[in-house]
Amino acid sequence: MTVTVVLADDQPMVRAGVRMLLSVDPAIQVVGEASDGHEAIAAVERLRPDVIVMDLRMPGTDGAEATRRIVAEQEHTPDALTRVLVLTTFNEDADVYAALRAGASGFLLKHASADVLATAIRRVAEGESWLDPAVVGRVIRALRLPPGPDGAAVAAVLTPREREVLTLVAEGLSNAELCDRLFLSEATVKTHVARVLMKTGSRDRAAAVALAYRSGFVRPPA
């Protein structure tokens, strides 16, 4: 399967360079470009790519806001899901957290090699998450909740949809059952589960379930 990609960056030379790097991979096809967040949103609506590679600092509507709006809009169109892979020069905590809170599926720095970029695009397209090794440790430390957090602390780091997913996972639903209950595709469910694990610092579903009950986010049945 070919992964379709849109490139969003305010620098034409950067877009041209990324396009050239990806052109050697027959499984990835760049189908469009955008020079700011507004154009990125329009390109996603028009082209419905599998992945949009998004810069963060662009004039007008920045990458974080564009990501938030793209992700929010797709809550209503789960079968035409475009995932966001942030590709940026800036390795600052505020940028990383803004991108992840907006709903990005991955975060990669521009010094990454062509192979790593292509791998990140494919993984994100498959519904998984990707974090640049340079920021993984900081993100885990920032999002890892202290022992025995209250339910409000758990809820605070999750979007409404992610809270719903965690609740159902804690009830024992499989991915297939989540698809049926939420009327979402399997790829979309995998993306939500991956984000729940990442944001709560849980190594797997079992750890997320334990956290949900220990914190009181989910109450055990009477």
TrEMBL record:
Alphabetical UniProt keywords: DNA-binding, Phosphoprotein, Transcription, Transcription regulation
Modified residues (4-aspartylphosphate): D55
Claim: Transcription regulation is one of the keywords in the record: yes
Top-level taxon of the source organism: Bacteria
Single Gene Ontology MF annotation: DNA binding
All copies of domain Response regulatory, residue ranges: 4-125
CDD domains membership: LuxR_C_like, REC_NarL-like
Chain ranges of the HTH luxR-type domain: 151-216
Positions of transmembrane segments: none
Any Pfam family matching the protein: Response_reg
GO biological process, one term: regulation of DNA-templated transcription
Gene3D superfamilies from the UniProt entry: 3.40.50.2300
Protein name: DNA-binding response regulator
